[in-house]
Amino acid sequence: MRPHAVTRRLRQATLALSLLLTACAGGNGPPGPRYAEVAAQIPKLAPDQARFFFYRYYEPYEGLDRPCIRLNGVVAAISEPGGVSYHDVAPGTYLVSVYSPGLYPNQDKTVTIKAGETVYVLIQSNQAYNQGFDNYSPATFVVAITDPEEGQRRIETMVYFPPSDAASATCQL
Q1: Segment 8-42, tens digit of pLDDT
Q2: Does any domain span residue 58?
Q3: Total number of domains in the chain
Q4: Which of 13, 120, 141, 159 has CB atoms 3.0–4.6 Å from 100's, for a disulfide?
């Protein structure tokens, strides 16, 4: 082989490897503004209200379903892969649940929240939990309450979905 043919093949292999690694990495999640970019524009929490932040990691291999998140049975947000949204509520006790065709022990959580408090809710997806259903593995979604410091840190790089978008969009029941 001639020297420049070897160089050309090496460049082609490098390009192919770069494209493959980019595809495997899945990018950085869905497009849109990151929470850190818009955090200053989010209205401050009213003194007589409490706030839930809902977030979910971008794990396309776990599925891209968009299940409804409910507070006491009422849709409050949509679980967006790689996204974060919030919902303000009156202080009280709430059953936080997410639609899930698969069942998991203790997948819903009950939270008592006071005025001025913020609760961070991680929606976890575990597609492998229900494997073995004759080539069908329903997604299993689980609610996890996270430490406020960890929750705040985790949502910084996620795509922000305003509450109005969540309320008007279609989610899986």
Answers
A1: 554 555 444 443 433 444 456 788 999 999 999 99
A2: yes
A3: 2
A4: 141
